[in-house]
Structure formats: structure tokens, C-alpha cells
Amino acid sequence: MNYAFPMEESDGKQQRALSADTGSILALERVDVRLEVEGQAVHISLEQDSESRFRCPKCDREYGYYDYAPGRTWRHLNICQFQTLVHARVPRVNCEEHGVVQVQVPWAEPHGRFTILMERFVIDVLLACQTA
Ligand SMILES: [Zn+2]
User: Fold this and answer.
1) Residue 106 has pLDDT above 60, yes or no
2) Ligand 1 midpoint to CA 101 (Å)
3) Centre of ligand 1 from the C-alpha of residue 124, in Å
4) Cα separation of 81 and 41, whole Å?
5) pLDDT band at 26 (very low <50, low <70, confident <90, very high)
6) By residue range, what is the domain housing residue 85?
7) Is residue 2 a part of any domain in this protein?
8) For the chain, how many structural domains are there in total?
9) 111, part of any domain
10) pTM score, two decimals?
């Protein structure tokens, strides 16, 4: 199992995270990585390209960027024993039917606090630890 970010597994859940069919891939303009040695953490900050087009997560119509939702943080897999946190301000679109809505990010479920890779890792560990 490859837990690199981004991953290229063909598993259904992981593939969805990478699939352009969802229309949810964010074109990243900038990625900053900051190492916090004392706190043993790696901070990955993502920013999207404001020229990108995004899809309403409810009706899949495509729109230009409207604004940003407040900044969020997702817990990702550790890197070299350092806790890894992904930070981003997710773009929102102004859908003619659904109003201002946040686009779906490819690395996490809606309202999720962990990346999909982190969730997948936890599930794999739980399955490996199952007793009959
Ligand atoms: Zn919509």
C-alpha cells in the first residue's frame, strides 16, 4: 500500500480523490511546506489558482471562483514521525441554484477532519488488528 501524497491506488475511495470526473480537483497555485521541529509537525499549506473553474458539489455545474471559506486544517499521515497537517482555504462558488457553496477538495471527505489517506490508513490498521 502506497501512502504517498498524492497516491495513485486504483481502490475506489482513493481513485475518487484523484478523479477528474468529480470536477473537484483543485489546481494548486502554491504549496508551502513548513517544518516545526520543536512541535514535531510538518505544515503543508495549499492555495488554489484563482483562475481555475470549480464545480458546485450539489449540481456539478462549473463556475469561477467566488471567494474562500475560512481556513481549515486536515490531519494527514505522519512524515518521518512528524505529525502532518494540511492547511487550506477552500474556494467557494456562487451557484445559481444552491447559492454560495464550498467546493469539494480532493484530499478529504466533506466536513472531514482527516485526509482520505489518513482515514484509509486507520481503517487498514483496524482491519489488520481484527481478532476472529
Ligand atoms: Zn449547484
Assistant:
1) yes
2) 8
3) 35
4) 9
5) low
6) 12-128
7) no
8) 1
9) yes
10) 0.74
Assess contact for 98 and 56: CB atoms under 8 A: yes
Indicate the Cα dihedral angle 123, 126, 131, 132, nearest 10°. -10
In this prediction, residue 130 has a pLDDT band, given cuts at 50, 70 and 90, of confident
Rounded to the nearest whole angstrom, what is the distance from the C-alpha of residue 94 to the centroid of ligand 1? 8
Q: Cα(115) to centroid of ligand 1, in Å?
A: 24
Query: How many other CB atoms sit within 10 Å of the CB of residue 101?
Result: 19
Q: How confident is the model at residue 48 (pLDDT cuts 50, 70, 90)?
A: confident
Strands (E), 49-90: 53-55, 62-64, 67-68, 72-79, 82-88
Residue 7 lies in a domain: no
Percent of the chain with pLDDT over 70: 77
Residue 35 lies in a domain: yes
- Distance (angstroms) between ligand 1 centre and the Cα of 55 equals 8
Distance 109 CA to ligand 1 centre (A): 18
Q: Separation of 56 CA from ligand 1 center, angstroms? A: 5
pLDDT at res. 47: 82
